[in-house]
Amino acid sequence: xxxPEFLQSISQEPLKVIDPSISLKDYIPLDLSIHxxxxxxxxxxxxxxxxxxxxxxxxxxxxxxxxxxxxEQRGIYDRSDYFNQNNPETERNIHLGLDLWIDAGTSVHAxxxxxxxxxxxxxxxxxxxPTIILKHQVKSISFYSLYGHLSLESLEGKEIGQSVVQGEQxxxxxxxxxxxxxxxxxxxxxxxxxxxxxxxxxxxxxKQDLDxxxxxxxxxxxxxxxx
Length: 227
Fold this sequence. Notes:
Elements: H1 3-10, E1 27-29, H2 47-60, E2 65-68, E3 94-95, E4 98-101, E5 107-109, E6 114-122, E7 129-138, E8 141-148, E9 163-164, E10 169-172, E11 185-191, E12 204-205, H3 210-216, H4 221-224
Parallel strand pairs: 1-2
Antiparallel strand pairs: 2-4, 3-12, 4-11, 5-10, 6-7, 6-9, 7-8, 8-11
């Protein structure tokens, strides 16, 4: 069984990674791709302008959470030299996780039982900011889940190897000042092989590396089942 098939089979019910009291009917898809014409009038390099766009989208749909972004090619990374190498083939602008856009301070929860593999404050401009990676062992299959754009407080009092249980609160979402200068949101990513990384793993791919990352980072929505 492939990892995507296995992830799909873990639970018939949607799993939660943010405030579990929020109903699934309060989630709304959000398109931040280069193909969204509405973004042509938005300065996506400004966290405040992007925040306004996201908030308006949520409010106009009477929702609480906007979600999406897996394998989405985005222009919001052009602002940072950390991603932009001025080469269409090597520029990293294809998103490998699923984003959940909601207010700073919202609780973040372990998607499954696991242990804390690593944690780190990734401070590059446009990076994750505070990040936690969990290791999961389900039956004979091991994989990792990454939670990025957290608050600084989320890293306090945690130890590598510490056990967590499914649904346990592990963090809260951070403000733009600490989360890489983005509107508050959770970057949630599934990773098969961390390739020796610690507290960090690429969340955005170039075109030339995409075939590898699509296999190593399957769709997180196989667990969240958001539609």
